[in-house]
Design goal:
Length: 355
């Protein structure tokens, strides 16, 4: 079965048994068993953005790379890892193997050449996370770190995926929404705004891109209750983990393929922008993680430090704990995605026993 996403219309191609066609003014909704499709306005019906890197080789998908057990009161999951680059590896190759995004692995390895790290080079894998300050249900997307967190229903786990998000002039909206429909093998109809951009580059863009290897939406699209915005795949996955889309959330094909089956219509989706995330580890110590502010949101240093302190204060709540102000300021200054221990060396762990 295939769907199509057009300017203002989402249509269904496939069996029509049991389908009910509803038309309300300019909106068209096709209700079919297990799939509800929303209409999309023409200016934002999908992305259509291009990524320079073309093509990729399929490899076995290791779900364990994304999946972490949750524990009561614990906000830090995962572990830091290192990997050895092969002779032909780029940082993007290593990122793909370990399920992290482009910006994440680049920040974690500031002295490493992105395109030629060199055989045997030690690559730091940023695979330890502080969970966003949001309800642990459904999907939570933190734009600042370009990650999606999925909390499967009735399971005490979190699954973490790198994503690409809207660039400066096509920002991804914040707020709470939900999944309203899903389309497999969507066709894409480039909106007029994107067609004009192509014309300015001297390129001709077709009015319809059918399902297939040339479709920038990939094989799966998950519709949200924010008109025109989707979670979708891509036909060029090397750009995952960048600020590169026209507002949609783009995932690696293997990740959207998995989430397509996991996310039911009605699943909660919360989109936040949290450059600072503070939380408790399993050993009862407090940590802070800082990501770069978007260029258009960059505050002055004093305000940045204040925001870092506020994040730590929220994590502390009413707990009495010795905090290292120097580490808080260091995280606010560096904004490099690293996880900084902000508990002082003589701090008593929150869970009771002294270090």
């Amino acid at each position: 079965m295939a769907g199509r996403i057009a300017g203002g219309v989402a249509r269904w191609r496939g069996p029509t048994f049991g389908a009910v066609l509803l038309v309300f003014g300019a909106w068209l909704v096709l209700a079919v068993p297990a799939v509800a499709e929303d209409a999309l306005p023409p200016e934002q019906a999908g992305d259509g953005e291009e990524v320079d890197e073309d093509g990729f080789e399929e490899q076995e998908w290791d779900r364990a790379l994304h999946r972490f057990e949750l524990a009561e009161g614990v906000d830090v999951v995962g572990e830091e890892q290192t990997a050895e680059a092969g002779a032909d590896d780029t940082l993007l190759d290593v990122a793909k193997r370990y399920a992290v995004g482009y910006e994440q692995i680049r920040m974690a390895n500031p002295g490493v050449d992105t395109w030629l790290p060199g055989e045997g080079a030690e690559i730091r894998i940023p695979s330890r996370y502080i969970l966003p300050d949001a309800p642990r249900e459904g999907v939570v997307i933190n734009l600042a770190e370009m990650r999606l967190y999925h909390y499967p229903e009735d399971e005490n786990v979190v699954e973490v995926f790198p994503v690409s998000i809207g660039r400066m002039d096509w920002s991804t909206p914040l707020g709470r929404t939900e999944v309203t429909g899903k389309i497999q093998d969507p066709a894409w109809y480039p909106p007029e705004s994107i067609r004009k951009q192509a014309e300015q580059r001297g390129e001709t863009m077709p009015r319809e891109v059918p399902p297939g290897p040339d479709n920038p939406l990939g094989r799966h699209a998950i519709l949200l209750d924010i008109s025109g915005y989707l979670l979708h795949g891509t036909n060029r996955p090397w750009g995952i983990g960048m600020r590169a889309t026209h507002g949609c959330i783009r995932l690696h094909p293997r990740d959207i393929d998995y989430l397509y089956d996991q996310l039911a219509v009605g699943t909660s989706v919360k989109i936040v922008n949290q450059p600072f995330q503070a939380g408790w580890s399993a050993d009862g110590l407090l940590y802070l993680q800082a990501f770069p502010f978007f260029e258009e949101d960059e505050p002055k240093r004093a305000e940045r430090v204040e925001l870092a302190v506020e994040s730590v204060a929220r994590a502390l709540g009413d707990a009495v704990h010795r905090v290292d102000g120097g580490q808080v300021r260091a995280a606010a200054d560096e904004q490099d995605g690293r996880i900084y221990r902000v508990s002082r060396t003589n701090a008593v762990p929150r869970w009771g026993a002294e270090e």
